[in-house]
Amino acid sequence: MNASSLFRLAFALYCLSHGMLAAAQEQPQQQIESVHVKPIRIGVSGPFTGELSLIGTSMREGIRIAAAEVNAAGGLLGRPVELVEYNDEARTERGAAIAQTMLNRDGIVAGLGTVNTGVALASQHYYQQARVPVINSAATGTLITRQFRASENADSFIFRVAPSDTVQAALMVEEAVDRRGFTRVAIFHDTTNYAQIGREDLERALDERGIRPVTVERFLLRQFSMTSQLERARSAGAQVVLVYGTGPGLARIANAMARLGWSAPLIGSWALAMPNFIENAGRDAEGARMPQTFIPDRLTPKRRAFLDAWRQRAGSERIPAPSAAAQGYDSMLLLAEAIRQANSTEGDHIRDALENLHAPVEGLIMTYNRPFSRDNHETITVPEQITMGEVRNGRVVFAYHEDRVRAAGR
What we know:
The chain is α/β, with parallel strands linked by helices.
């Protein structure tokens, strides 16, 4: 048995032991001195239990599907990809500790994941210090890629695939004011940092159009009655309600509006697409609209292949958080292409490649053509790069036919 055959055998055995059956097929010919192939380790962290677990597990599964595709095509640099996964429980201190463990003990060459903005900001310090790239796959806080600006630091190792809250808020206001003509706007937000920063982004986007909200209402995470806040908003003449928060609280708003007989449109951040909003709100969720990077529609071969892989792995076609799944998938593919281009697992070389990717990368959200640069570490920078979704018959679909046509052309 020659060295190439030994490599294929070793690679197949590794993939079988790690649940990557497809990776053992069609391994290309390579010259290698040893059958002991050291994997390329990539860290994945997120909330895989708790309130945000639907987002975290969807993101993780998207990353896993992409990693399996990479391994099925022969891995990276002649080596298999191994995901090192940790549950950060959406806890800041745990996320920071996990980052240190993955970097110092587990020997990861890059990181993917995070859902909670506070966790991302805390853990990114350690990636930056270690000069190891991390691509945020689901955290949306605007500050994430601004934490270490290239103008203030020699290099920034922080990248993102998810749309920032600034971009989401801009699309929400564009939907309410520019497309639907509302000028009297109410804002509802919960007490989380995520929602309060989102509220600030909404107010800035409205101010750019010379509009001030008729009321801004803050509610507690466990608050069960929204009647008084909604009655104030309706009395103030609000034509539309813009919301920033998490699913259960948003469902209580939708239910309370229905009880009051108030049919003002409900427009929110991507949390309105979560099952804990749609299921808790029931029929009162119908018509709610929200920004989405990915709506699970079998429009292209790439989307069909992903949805088939999801169904095979999850045993169900339902994706709890489709945008998070797609963002996780795309972030893995972008990282893989950067490692190929760099022909290295050194952090500086991977970062340089991410900032100047030569080959286009076909993802679920878009085909990425030089998505990053030294001065821009965001793949999504304007509202036109994302889609407005709408709840219809208990599922999220394209709110506008032209968005569906655009997605089919990607």
